[in-house]
Amino acid sequence: MNSKRQTAVEFQRKYYTDSAERYESMHGHEGDADDALFKIFCVFLHLVEAGSVLDVGAATGRGVRKLLDAFPGACVCGIEPVQALIHQAIAKNNVPEQCMLCGSGERLPFPDQSFDVVCSFAMLHHVPEPNAVVGEMLRVARKAVLILDSNRFGQGRQAVRLLKLALYKVGLWRVVNYLKTGGKGYLTTEGDGLAYSYSVYDSFRLLSRWADRLILIPQDSQRLASWFHPLLTSSGILVCALKGV
Fold it and tell me: Is residue 98 part of a domain?
């Protein structure tokens, strides 16, 4: 890992360490906090008859706790690189200690096909190489990989969305984003720490090569009148990559 990327990772982990006790109040609207999408998520777990689930980037274990409650008897595990967030999972969300591991999504400490389902909730836009994480998720999954995350092409005014898509298609988005972020590749905010410009469509080819079926479900359900739905209409998307279904 180069020094610039290492500095960014350290910054992000310090941000989450310092804000661990306030994490859920700050991020109460993100990822696994969306009850409607979590119910859909659970439908897919029932569909593939999941007996084991890994949550990558589990933070305070909110998703792990909800999965434990929804699937009693299933093996549910969360992996999270920030120890302070793991402590919150155990102390405040009553997640059993053995269900939370400290580790990185770029190097999951599990053999191939270790879990029926591997998932992540609003985490990939916080890592410098999201497809490295997605590749690891695919490696350790047997039946499904489920990702709920952002979609840059569904954010901003309509003209901006079209421009971002055009720049991406001609291979210029990385250059534009590099200039936009002053050469860092990411932006920082008090409410979200360090975030990269990510769309679940950045991982589309990787997921489609692994999966037999790929299903995309928009987070912004009110915007339906478009041929480009959800590519240009939803700021967040649940991607369900299914194998053998």
Answer: yes
Alpha-carbon gap, residue 23 to 18, rounded angstroms: 9
pLDDT for 191: 80
pLDDT tier at 241, thresholds 50, 70, 90: very high
The stretch 24-52 carries a mean pLDDT of: 85
Give how many domains the chain has, as a whole number: 1
Sign of CA dihedral 40, 65, 207, 203: positive
* Residue 166 token pair: 């055009």
Q: How deeply is 6 buried, as exposed, middle or buried, from its count of CB atoms within 10 A (0-12, 13-18, 19+)?
A: exposed
Query: Phi/psi at 236 (nearest 5 deg)?
Result: -145, 145
Cα–Cα distances (Å) from 86 to 27, 100, 218, in that order, read 16, 7, 29
Domain that holds residue 146: 3-155+196-242
CATH code, 200: 3.40.50.150
The answer as to whether 164 is a domain residue is: no
| Measured distance CA(18)–CA(22) in Å, rounded | 9
Instruction: Name 64's Cβ contacts closer than 8 Å, sequence gap at least 6.
Output: 55, 58, 76, 77, 78, 89, 93, 95, 99, 100
**168 lies in a domain?**
no
Burial of 220 (0-12, 13-18, 19+ CB in 10 A): middle
Please report the pLDDT score of residue 224 as a whole number.
62
Instruction: Decide if 170 is inside a domain.
Output: no
* For range 54-62, the mean pLDDT: 96
Dihedral (CA of 100, 197, 217, 106) sign: negative
What does each C-alpha distance from 77 to 18, 58, 199 come to in angstroms? 24, 9, 25
